What we know:
Blueprint: H1 3-6, H2 17-24, H3 28-37, H4 40-49, H5 55-67, H6 71-79, H7 84-94, H8 97-106, H9 110-119, H10 123-132, H11 136-145, H12 149-159, H13 162-170, H14 179-192, H15 196-206, H16 216-228, H17 249-253, H18 263-272, E1 274-278, E2 283-285, E3 294-299, E4 302-305, E5 314-318, E6 323-324, E7 338-341, E8 345-350, H19 352-361, H20 363-385
Helix pairs in contact: 2-3, 3-5, 5-6, 6-7, 7-8, 8-9, 9-10, 10-11, 11-12, 12-13, 13-14, 13-18, 14-15, 14-16, 15-16
Amino acid sequence: xxxxxxxxxxxxxxxxxxxxxxxxxxxxxxxxxxxxxxxxxxxxxxxxxxxxxxxxxxxxxxxxxxxxxxxxxxxxxxxxxxxxxxxxxxxxxxxxxxxxxxxxxxxxxxxxxxxxxxxxxxxxxxxxxxxxxxxxxxxxxxxxxxxxxxxxxxxxxxxxxxxxxxxxxxxxxxxxxxxxxxxxxxxxxxxxxxxxxxxxxxxxxxxxxxxxxxxxxxxxxxxxxxxxxxxxxxxxxxxxxxxxxxxxxxxxxxxxxxxxxxxxxxxxxxxxxxxxxxxxxxxxxxxxxxxxxxxxxxxxxxxxxxxxxxxxxxxxxxxxxxxxxxxxxxxxxxxxxxxxxxxxxxxxxxxxxxxxxxxxxxxxxxxxxxxxxxxxxxxxxxxxxx
Length: 386
Protein backbone atom coordinates (compact mmCIF):
# COMPACT_ATOMS: atom_id res chain seq x y z
CA UNK A 1 0.00 0.00 0.00
CA UNK A 2 1.28 3.44 -0.86
CA UNK A 3 2.46 5.41 2.20
CA UNK A 4 0.65 8.46 0.83
CA UNK A 5 -2.63 6.74 1.66
CA UNK A 6 -2.19 5.96 5.38
CA UNK A 7 0.75 8.22 6.15
CA UNK A 8 4.39 7.74 6.81
CA UNK A 9 3.97 7.35 10.52
CA UNK A 10 2.10 4.06 10.28
CA UNK A 11 1.60 1.59 7.47
CA UNK A 12 -1.41 -0.64 7.13
CA UNK A 13 -1.34 -4.08 8.69
CA UNK A 14 -0.81 -7.13 6.51
CA UNK A 15 -4.46 -8.14 6.69
CA UNK A 16 -5.79 -4.77 5.54
CA UNK A 17 -3.11 -3.92 2.96
CA UNK A 18 -5.11 -5.20 -0.09
CA UNK A 19 -8.03 -3.06 0.99
CA UNK A 20 -5.97 0.10 1.33
CA UNK A 21 -4.28 -0.56 -2.01
CA UNK A 22 -7.71 -0.59 -3.67
CA UNK A 23 -8.59 2.65 -1.89
CA UNK A 24 -5.32 4.28 -3.02
CA UNK A 25 -6.06 3.31 -6.61
CA UNK A 26 -9.64 4.64 -6.39
CA UNK A 27 -10.98 1.17 -7.21
CA UNK A 28 -14.15 1.62 -5.15
CA UNK A 29 -15.94 -1.55 -6.31
CA UNK A 30 -12.90 -3.67 -5.50
CA UNK A 31 -12.49 -1.92 -2.14
CA UNK A 32 -16.15 -2.56 -1.27
CA UNK A 33 -15.88 -6.28 -1.99
CA UNK A 34 -12.58 -6.50 -0.13
CA UNK A 35 -13.99 -4.71 2.90
CA UNK A 36 -17.09 -6.93 2.97
CA UNK A 37 -14.84 -9.99 2.96
CA UNK A 38 -12.80 -8.83 5.96
CA UNK A 39 -13.41 -10.27 9.42
CA UNK A 40 -14.97 -7.95 11.99
CA UNK A 41 -11.62 -7.45 13.75
CA UNK A 42 -10.01 -6.48 10.43
CA UNK A 43 -12.80 -4.00 9.70
CA UNK A 44 -12.19 -2.45 13.12
CA UNK A 45 -8.50 -2.22 12.23
CA UNK A 46 -9.37 -0.37 9.00
CA UNK A 47 -11.35 2.20 11.01
CA UNK A 48 -8.43 2.66 13.40
CA UNK A 49 -6.00 3.09 10.50
CA UNK A 50 -8.32 5.64 8.89
CA UNK A 51 -7.15 8.29 11.36
CA UNK A 52 -3.72 8.14 9.67
CA UNK A 53 -5.06 8.24 6.12
CA UNK A 54 -4.82 11.23 3.81
CA UNK A 55 -7.95 13.31 3.25
CA UNK A 56 -8.50 11.95 -0.31
CA UNK A 57 -8.18 8.39 1.02
CA UNK A 58 -10.62 9.13 3.84
CA UNK A 59 -13.15 10.52 1.37
CA UNK A 60 -12.85 7.37 -0.73
CA UNK A 61 -13.10 5.27 2.42
CA UNK A 62 -16.38 6.92 3.41
CA UNK A 63 -17.83 6.14 0.00
CA UNK A 64 -16.66 2.54 0.31
CA UNK A 65 -18.16 2.18 3.78
CA UNK A 66 -21.48 3.62 2.66
CA UNK A 67 -21.69 1.24 -0.28
CA UNK A 68 -20.70 -1.64 1.97
CA UNK A 69 -23.51 -0.46 4.30
CA UNK A 70 -21.24 0.05 7.26
CA UNK A 71 -23.01 3.29 8.08
CA UNK A 72 -21.68 3.48 11.62
CA UNK A 73 -18.14 3.05 10.32
CA UNK A 74 -18.65 5.83 7.77
CA UNK A 75 -20.00 8.09 10.52
CA UNK A 76 -17.01 7.29 12.71
CA UNK A 77 -14.58 8.25 9.93
CA UNK A 78 -16.47 11.46 9.16
CA UNK A 79 -16.71 12.61 12.78
CA UNK A 80 -13.12 13.80 12.76
CA UNK A 81 -13.75 15.87 9.63
CA UNK A 82 -16.92 17.70 10.75
CA UNK A 83 -20.15 17.44 8.81
CA UNK A 84 -22.26 16.66 11.88
CA UNK A 85 -25.54 16.48 9.96
CA UNK A 86 -24.19 13.82 7.62
CA UNK A 87 -22.70 11.96 10.58
CA UNK A 88 -26.07 12.02 12.35
CA UNK A 89 -27.87 10.66 9.31
CA UNK A 90 -25.34 7.85 8.98
CA UNK A 91 -25.69 6.92 12.63
CA UNK A 92 -29.48 6.86 12.21
CA UNK A 93 -29.10 4.54 9.23
CA UNK A 94 -26.97 2.30 11.43
CA UNK A 95 -29.57 2.34 14.19
CA UNK A 96 -27.09 4.02 16.55
CA UNK A 97 -29.66 6.51 17.78
CA UNK A 98 -27.84 7.93 20.79
CA UNK A 99 -24.74 8.69 18.70
CA UNK A 100 -27.06 10.21 16.09
CA UNK A 101 -28.66 12.40 18.74
CA UNK A 102 -25.30 13.74 19.90
CA UNK A 103 -24.35 14.46 16.29
CA UNK A 104 -27.64 16.29 15.72
CA UNK A 105 -26.85 18.42 18.78
CA UNK A 106 -23.44 19.30 17.34
CA UNK A 107 -25.20 20.26 14.11
CA UNK A 108 -27.56 22.56 16.03
CA UNK A 109 -30.59 20.43 15.14
CA UNK A 110 -32.17 20.21 18.59
CA UNK A 111 -35.55 18.92 17.44
CA UNK A 112 -33.98 16.06 15.53
CA UNK A 113 -31.67 15.36 18.45
CA UNK A 114 -34.64 15.16 20.80
CA UNK A 115 -36.43 12.72 18.53
CA UNK A 116 -33.32 10.55 18.25
CA UNK A 117 -32.89 10.55 22.03
CA UNK A 118 -36.54 9.55 22.42
CA UNK A 119 -36.27 6.76 19.87
CA UNK A 120 -33.07 5.59 21.54
CA UNK A 121 -34.71 5.40 24.96
CA UNK A 122 -32.88 8.38 26.50
CA UNK A 123 -36.19 9.90 27.55
CA UNK A 124 -34.86 12.38 30.12
CA UNK A 125 -32.50 13.87 27.52
CA UNK A 126 -35.36 14.01 25.02
CA UNK A 127 -37.70 15.59 27.58
CA UNK A 128 -35.25 18.37 28.41
CA UNK A 129 -34.85 19.25 24.74
CA UNK A 130 -38.57 19.10 23.98
CA UNK A 131 -39.29 21.35 26.96
CA UNK A 132 -36.66 23.85 25.81
CA UNK A 133 -38.21 23.82 22.33
CA UNK A 134 -41.75 24.22 23.79
CA UNK A 135 -42.74 21.09 21.85
CA UNK A 136 -45.63 20.31 24.16
CA UNK A 137 -47.11 17.27 22.43
CA UNK A 138 -43.69 15.64 22.44
CA UNK A 139 -43.13 16.73 26.05
CA UNK A 140 -46.37 15.07 27.12
CA UNK A 141 -45.46 11.93 25.19
CA UNK A 142 -42.11 11.67 26.98
CA UNK A 143 -43.69 12.33 30.37
CA UNK A 144 -46.12 9.50 29.69
CA UNK A 145 -43.34 7.09 28.78
CA UNK A 146 -41.45 8.17 31.91
CA UNK A 147 -44.52 7.20 33.97
CA UNK A 148 -45.26 10.74 35.09
CA UNK A 149 -48.95 10.74 34.14
CA UNK A 150 -50.19 13.75 36.09
CA UNK A 151 -47.53 15.97 34.51
CA UNK A 152 -48.34 14.58 31.08
CA UNK A 153 -52.05 15.09 31.68
CA UNK A 154 -51.46 18.72 32.64
CA UNK A 155 -49.70 19.34 29.32
CA UNK A 156 -52.47 17.63 27.36
CA UNK A 157 -55.00 19.74 29.24
CA UNK A 158 -53.19 22.91 28.17
CA UNK A 159 -53.31 21.63 24.59
CA UNK A 160 -57.04 20.90 24.81
CA UNK A 161 -56.46 17.23 23.96
CA UNK A 162 -59.00 15.66 26.32
CA UNK A 163 -58.73 12.23 24.71
CA UNK A 164 -55.00 11.89 25.40
CA UNK A 165 -55.40 13.44 28.86
CA UNK A 166 -58.04 10.88 29.79
CA UNK A 167 -55.91 7.97 28.56
CA UNK A 168 -52.87 9.16 30.52
CA UNK A 169 -54.91 9.55 33.71
CA UNK A 170 -56.25 6.03 33.35
CA UNK A 171 -52.70 4.76 33.81
CA UNK A 172 -52.68 5.99 37.44
CA UNK A 173 -53.29 2.74 39.27
CA UNK A 174 -55.64 2.38 42.27
CA UNK A 175 -53.71 2.59 45.49
CA UNK A 176 -51.37 5.34 44.34
CA UNK A 177 -51.61 8.73 46.10
CA UNK A 178 -52.20 10.39 42.72
CA UNK A 179 -55.29 8.27 42.08
CA UNK A 180 -57.65 10.73 43.82
CA UNK A 181 -56.62 13.66 41.64
CA UNK A 182 -56.72 11.46 38.53
CA UNK A 183 -60.24 10.19 39.28
CA UNK A 184 -61.62 13.67 39.86
CA UNK A 185 -60.20 14.90 36.57
CA UNK A 186 -61.31 11.78 34.66
CA UNK A 187 -64.83 12.28 35.98
CA UNK A 188 -64.86 15.86 34.72
CA UNK A 189 -63.57 14.80 31.30
CA UNK A 190 -66.02 11.92 30.91
CA UNK A 191 -68.93 14.11 31.96
CA UNK A 192 -67.90 16.82 29.49
CA UNK A 193 -67.77 14.19 26.73
CA UNK A 194 -71.37 13.16 27.45
CA UNK A 195 -70.32 9.95 29.19
CA UNK A 196 -71.68 10.79 32.63
CA UNK A 197 -72.63 7.19 33.36
CA UNK A 198 -69.04 6.05 32.94
CA UNK A 199 -67.93 8.89 35.21
CA UNK A 200 -70.47 7.84 37.84
CA UNK A 201 -69.34 4.24 37.75
CA UNK A 202 -65.72 5.39 38.10
CA UNK A 203 -66.58 7.47 41.19
CA UNK A 204 -68.66 4.68 42.71
CA UNK A 205 -65.86 2.14 42.28
CA UNK A 206 -63.29 4.55 43.69
CA UNK A 207 -65.38 5.27 46.78
CA UNK A 208 -65.36 1.56 47.61
CA UNK A 209 -61.65 1.78 48.48
CA UNK A 210 -61.14 2.32 52.25
CA UNK A 211 -58.67 5.15 51.60
CA UNK A 212 -61.31 7.18 49.73
CA UNK A 213 -64.60 6.32 51.45
CA UNK A 214 -64.61 9.52 53.49
CA UNK A 215 -63.03 11.78 50.86
CA UNK A 216 -65.17 14.90 50.66
CA UNK A 217 -64.22 15.92 47.13
CA UNK A 218 -64.94 12.47 45.69
CA UNK A 219 -68.25 12.27 47.53
CA UNK A 220 -69.25 15.73 46.31
CA UNK A 221 -68.46 14.83 42.69
CA UNK A 222 -70.38 11.56 43.08
CA UNK A 223 -73.40 13.42 44.43
CA UNK A 224 -73.23 15.97 41.62
CA UNK A 225 -73.27 13.23 38.99
CA UNK A 226 -76.23 11.55 40.68
CA UNK A 227 -78.16 14.81 40.57
CA UNK A 228 -77.07 15.42 36.99
CA UNK A 229 -78.39 12.01 35.96
CA UNK A 230 -81.61 12.42 37.95
CA UNK A 231 -80.93 9.55 40.34
CA UNK A 232 -82.45 9.59 43.82
CA UNK A 233 -79.71 7.67 45.60
CA UNK A 234 -76.98 8.15 48.13
CA UNK A 235 -73.25 7.92 47.51
CA UNK A 236 -73.12 4.29 48.65
CA UNK A 237 -75.63 3.01 46.11
CA UNK A 238 -74.29 1.22 43.04
CA UNK A 239 -75.81 2.85 39.91
CA UNK A 240 -77.29 0.75 37.18
CA UNK A 241 -74.61 0.19 34.57
CA UNK A 242 -75.71 1.11 31.11
CA UNK A 243 -73.70 0.22 28.01
CA UNK A 244 -71.02 2.94 27.70
CA UNK A 245 -70.81 5.06 24.62
CA UNK A 246 -68.09 3.72 22.30
CA UNK A 247 -64.72 5.32 22.95
CA UNK A 248 -63.07 3.64 19.98
CA UNK A 249 -60.54 1.42 21.73
CA UNK A 250 -62.31 -1.83 20.88
CA UNK A 251 -62.88 -0.67 17.30
CA UNK A 252 -59.21 0.26 16.89
CA UNK A 253 -58.14 -3.02 18.46
CA UNK A 254 -60.29 -4.97 15.99
CA UNK A 255 -58.52 -3.59 12.89
CA UNK A 256 -56.55 -6.50 11.36
CA UNK A 257 -53.43 -4.37 10.89
CA UNK A 258 -53.12 -4.12 14.68
CA UNK A 259 -54.08 -7.71 15.40
CA UNK A 260 -50.74 -8.69 16.98
CA UNK A 261 -50.04 -5.64 19.14
CA UNK A 262 -49.40 -6.16 22.84
CA UNK A 263 -51.66 -4.50 25.41
CA UNK A 264 -49.19 -1.70 26.14
CA UNK A 265 -48.50 -1.03 22.46
CA UNK A 266 -52.23 -1.00 21.73
CA UNK A 267 -52.86 1.47 24.55
CA UNK A 268 -50.08 3.72 23.26
CA UNK A 269 -51.56 3.65 19.77
CA UNK A 270 -54.98 4.54 21.14
CA UNK A 271 -53.48 7.53 22.94
CA UNK A 272 -52.09 8.77 19.60
CA UNK A 273 -55.61 8.84 18.08
CA UNK A 274 -57.49 12.12 18.10
CA UNK A 275 -61.29 12.56 18.27
CA UNK A 276 -62.86 14.33 15.29
CA UNK A 277 -66.42 15.26 14.41
CA UNK A 278 -68.20 15.96 11.14
CA UNK A 279 -71.58 17.58 10.53
CA UNK A 280 -74.07 16.00 8.16
CA UNK A 281 -72.93 16.63 4.59
CA UNK A 282 -69.30 17.38 5.49
CA UNK A 283 -66.51 15.97 3.35
CA UNK A 284 -64.74 13.35 5.45
CA UNK A 285 -62.19 12.33 2.80
CA UNK A 286 -61.65 14.06 -0.55
CA UNK A 287 -60.90 11.94 -3.58
CA UNK A 288 -57.50 12.77 -5.05
CA UNK A 289 -56.23 14.47 -1.89
CA UNK A 290 -53.11 13.10 -0.16
CA UNK A 291 -53.99 10.31 2.25
CA UNK A 292 -54.58 11.74 5.72
CA UNK A 293 -54.31 8.56 7.76
CA UNK A 294 -56.72 6.20 9.47
CA UNK A 295 -60.29 7.14 10.41
CA UNK A 296 -62.34 4.89 12.72
CA UNK A 297 -66.08 5.61 12.92
CA UNK A 298 -67.58 5.72 16.41
CA UNK A 299 -71.04 7.15 15.77
CA UNK A 300 -72.97 8.06 12.63
CA UNK A 301 -72.64 6.89 9.04
CA UNK A 302 -70.71 7.96 5.95
CA UNK A 303 -71.23 7.41 2.23
CA UNK A 304 -68.29 6.24 0.15
CA UNK A 305 -68.62 7.64 -3.38
CA UNK A 306 -66.75 7.10 -6.61
CA UNK A 307 -66.10 10.83 -6.99
CA UNK A 308 -66.88 14.31 -5.73
CA UNK A 309 -69.15 15.30 -8.62
CA UNK A 310 -72.95 15.39 -8.21
CA UNK A 311 -74.52 12.03 -8.92
CA UNK A 312 -71.30 10.10 -8.27
CA UNK A 313 -71.86 6.37 -7.79
CA UNK A 314 -72.44 5.22 -4.21
CA UNK A 315 -69.87 2.51 -3.44
CA UNK A 316 -70.69 1.81 0.18
CA UNK A 317 -72.24 3.14 3.38
CA UNK A 318 -70.26 2.65 6.58
CA UNK A 319 -71.23 2.92 10.23
CA UNK A 320 -69.76 2.55 13.71
CA UNK A 321 -66.74 0.26 13.87
CA UNK A 322 -65.85 0.72 10.19
CA UNK A 323 -62.46 2.17 9.30
CA UNK A 324 -61.05 3.87 6.22
CA UNK A 325 -57.63 5.11 5.11
CA UNK A 326 -55.47 2.52 6.88
CA UNK A 327 -53.24 2.05 3.83
CA UNK A 328 -52.27 5.73 3.93
CA UNK A 329 -50.67 5.15 7.33
CA UNK A 330 -47.85 3.31 5.59
CA UNK A 331 -47.95 4.12 1.87
CA UNK A 332 -47.96 7.54 0.23
CA UNK A 333 -50.74 8.07 -2.23
CA UNK A 334 -53.92 9.95 -3.02
CA UNK A 335 -57.33 9.08 -1.59
CA UNK A 336 -59.13 6.75 -4.01
CA UNK A 337 -62.73 7.55 -3.00
CA UNK A 338 -64.84 10.49 -1.85
CA UNK A 339 -66.41 10.13 1.59
CA UNK A 340 -69.29 12.28 2.86
CA UNK A 341 -70.97 12.32 6.26
CA UNK A 342 -74.50 10.95 5.83
CA UNK A 343 -75.30 12.03 9.41
CA UNK A 344 -73.42 13.67 12.24
CA UNK A 345 -70.27 11.63 12.69
CA UNK A 346 -67.94 11.09 15.61
CA UNK A 347 -64.67 9.34 14.83
CA UNK A 348 -61.06 8.76 15.81
CA UNK A 349 -58.22 9.79 13.51
CA UNK A 350 -54.63 8.56 13.50
CA UNK A 351 -52.59 10.81 11.22
CA UNK A 352 -49.78 9.46 9.08
CA UNK A 353 -47.24 11.69 10.87
CA UNK A 354 -48.32 10.51 14.34
CA UNK A 355 -48.34 6.90 13.19
CA UNK A 356 -44.85 7.14 11.73
CA UNK A 357 -43.57 8.49 15.03
CA UNK A 358 -45.36 5.66 16.82
CA UNK A 359 -43.56 3.14 14.61
CA UNK A 360 -40.22 4.88 15.26
CA UNK A 361 -40.66 4.59 19.03
CA UNK A 362 -42.30 1.13 19.20
CA UNK A 363 -39.91 -1.22 17.44
CA UNK A 364 -41.69 -4.50 18.28
CA UNK A 365 -45.07 -3.06 17.29
CA UNK A 366 -43.62 -1.71 14.03
CA UNK A 367 -42.29 -5.14 13.06
CA UNK A 368 -45.66 -6.79 13.74
CA UNK A 369 -47.64 -4.12 11.91
CA UNK A 370 -45.39 -4.05 8.84
CA UNK A 371 -45.36 -7.85 8.63
CA UNK A 372 -49.17 -8.00 8.70
CA UNK A 373 -49.38 -5.17 6.18
CA UNK A 374 -47.00 -7.00 3.85
CA UNK A 375 -49.02 -10.20 4.18
CA UNK A 376 -52.30 -8.42 3.41
CA UNK A 377 -50.71 -6.63 0.46
CA UNK A 378 -49.39 -9.94 -0.89
CA UNK A 379 -52.87 -11.47 -0.56
CA UNK A 380 -54.35 -8.63 -2.60
CA UNK A 381 -51.71 -9.01 -5.30
CA UNK A 382 -52.38 -12.75 -5.51
CA UNK A 383 -56.13 -12.14 -5.70
CA UNK A 384 -55.71 -9.63 -8.52
CA UNK A 385 -53.42 -11.97 -10.50
CA UNK A 386 -55.60 -15.04 -10.03
